[in-house]
Design brief:
Elements (H helix, E strand, L loop, with lengths): L1 H32 L3 H5 L2 H19 L3 H8 L5 H25 L3 H6 L8 H29 L4 H14 L7 H18 L3 H20 L8 H29 L10
Helix pairs in contact: 1-3, 1-7, 3-7, 4-7, 5-10, 5-11, 7-8, 7-9, 7-10, 8-9, 9-10
Amino acid sequence: MKKSLLYFALFAALHVGTALLFFSCLALYAWAAGIDSDVLLDAPWVEDAGLSLAFAVSFLVFIRLRIVRHMLTMRTAGMVKSCVLAALTALCIILIESPLTNALGLEEAVTESDPFASGSVLILFTGCLLGPFVEEMVFRGAMTGSMVDKRCNIIIVLTVPSLFFAAIHLIPELTPFYFAYGILAGWLAVRTGCLWPSIVFHVTNNTFCAIQDSALPDIDTLGETTATAVQWVLAAVAAIGLTLCIMALNRGTKTRKSVSYK
């Protein structure tokens, strides 16, 4: 448990420290070059570059941890099937989330939290690939993996990393969604003993969120009432699909024996 919290503190320190160092170097460069630092720091690419650099530094540090390397190289029977089911699970969750956030009046929070707003290639790479990969290494690899090795209770194993995962996104209104997402990603890691299903799950979710406006048909033209009804029908179908995916994953995997249920 303590080691898990230390891993989270390390990730937060690396993330914030790298970003601050990057912005400080830019400000120093602007001063030396006689450029208005506000103009430079407000450039659209600066925030994207800082975020990418912060994730890159975290990757270089956490990839050296034994537990993370073990969970990345673990190969078990049915791994490809598990990854495919994890991707389908992510798609089902997206279809379920859409009408829920609308019904709860969270559209504005979802829009403001959009990590792909700039649309730059760099932020798409970071948000769809690098970010999910690193976050799974930290929360489901280092944190979850260390608690599994210590034979912690399964409730603690799943909830603690999920709480920190939700908190670090700094969007209070969407915290329950991030928490539920973390629980499922953690369950995937525990069931398979490997990070790849949770990585595929996370990457699929972020990638589809980035392209869903163009990938999904425009149902708003049907009228508000009809569009809402269609969304809920799709959510109901997705809920059935989600249940089937979880049942298939549960049947095809086996929880690591070191996890405690007492």
